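Problem 12. The chain below contains 204 residues. Write out its predicted structure in token notation.
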Amino acid sequence: MLRYVRLRHASLGVSLGLAASIPSNAEAAPKNDPAERGLDVFVHGAPNVIAGETLSLDLKTYGFPSVTVANPLPGATVVAAWDPETLGPNVSAAPSDATVTTDALGQARLDIPVPSGDARKITLLLALRHGEHTRTRKVEINRMPKNLIEVKVADSSVVPGSRVPTWVIVTDARTGRAVSGAAVDVALLEGDVERTTERVTTDA
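Solution.
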């Protein structure tokens, strides 16, 4: 599945430490500025990525020398960074940024590691820069769990004081193979109340 993001006319923010510098008059802008009237980028990538894997994005940038003309924009810089506020609990800082520069056709490929964590929607901040022109945009990615857990019980009907045999099966979400040595916390809940909990470790 492909993701499409259009950045033209997007409001500039302070994300990633990039600031806009807009010429005060027409004479201040460089002649033959390929992005004088704006910037645009097409972003293609998978919307769902497993935690700990690498997210790959194909980028194509455009510059607008005039309102009605769009040309491929070579030499544009794209900086990608994860928004730490979306990564989940106990995350004080986001992983390192990733930066690429577009080629003569205005194209680039960007690879950035997906932070580990639980399954949730996380936000990637993209900043596009060419000369004094900058744009920024948020792209939402669905972070999928690295491992899948299946629980099987011998009997779904229980009585107080009894013990129920329970099997916990952990598999790799990408390969489907069993994960050995995984620590799993198994809890018995009565409504929202935790009655008992036990940590187990998977075998081979």
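Discussion. The CA atoms of residues 88 and 117 lie 7 Å apart. Students who got a different answer should revisit the alignment rule from Section 12.3.
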